[in-house]
Amino acid sequence: MQFFRAYIAPLLVVLVFVIALVAVSARIFLPGDMLAPAPVETEVGTASGLGGAAALTARS
Question: With contact defined as beta carbons under 8 Å apart, do 10 and 2 qualify?
Answer without folding.
Answer: no
